Known about the structure:
By secondary structure, this protein is an alpha/beta fold. Helices cover 28% and strands 26% of the residues. The termini are far apart.
Amino acid sequence: MTRYSIFSLARNALSNHQNWPKVWRSPEPKSRYEIVIIGGGGHGLATAYYLAKNHGIKNVAVVEKGWLGGGNTGRNTTIVRSNYGQPGNTLFYEKSMQLWEGLSKDLNYNVMMSHRGVLNLAHNDAQIDAFQRRGNTMRINNIDAEWLSLNQVQVLVPLLNCSSRTRFPVKGGLLQPRAGTARHDAVAWGFARGADKYGIDIIQNCEVTGIDVHAGEVKGVQTTRGPIRATKVATAVAGHTAHLCEMVGMRMPLETHVLQAMVSEPIKPCLNTVVTSGAAHVYISQSDKGELVFGGDLDFYPSYAQRGNFPRIEDVAQNVVSLFPAFGRLRLMRTWGGIMDMSMDGSPIISTSHIKGFFINGGWCYGGFKATPGSGWVYAHTIANDAPHELNIKFALNRFESGALIDESGNGATAKAH
């Protein structure tokens, strides 16, 4: 770094960012766009970016009712992985992982991808069998997967309680070394800056209040900042997918639930991988600031509130301490909740619809953040071509009519193997 840039950085820092240039524009909405994307989180911004980059479609608006990344993009535990075993999910999430690996370079923005690995702990014979089968599926598809014995798990995670007398005895684990974590807000900012450079309008504080449909064809949206006409409208709104689809008369096979997460006070580095336990319904990693980031299962009551309740916090904390007794004296610093579209088979929906020009992206369950670049990549293809990419063809909405479900409910970090 040059002497000039050091002094410039210090001067701007002391000015409370007053002289810092804006990373993206804040334009007024135009009366018409070719495509309107509803939702300014990671998926919506990634879709806009790939529409411009891959398909040359730049007359696009991303409308967000709040601020960018204020929904689930900023309310998750930052885990990135592609350790899926069901046809449809396996190659899709691996495509997303490949995009993650080059994302900082592609966006020219550091998303702080950390390949620290994700370890799924096995606690019984059924889980050993399920995890080894999933690992074999991954390896057949050229996805990295390693089965670790109990001794190897102990070496990798020295603080883990591997006693046979503990509440959740560890029998081994499935490790994906390339998996890890990324900085969630940096992902939103990087895609926003990238989309803005292509001329895409990113419009914050613009809530969609209605979707205009005439003769089976979408015509635009009604917003708190006026009507916007569009040839195509695409949803990317996490837990509010069913709400938006109701505006066009569609009932979705989704439930919306609260998923909580929390962090401890910061401590010195002691956990260099992500550890998940389906039996304990808990997952944990250590942030770059030293905080332990962990979460558990759903609160299991329908809700659109971005907050949870104390019984779930207590349950997660108990299970963390059961797995890591050394963490028992740490103070809990803060908690938060995200709202989850839970599909009936545990897999997402990236699909066209019976309404011409209306596209749906939702039902992400536990898999939303890790799918961000992959979702945007295939969703942009689907919107641009009015037909799915081969990687998301199994995520069509009509699979719930035909019965061609993708039952991946046993693969979430908080789900039991079965």
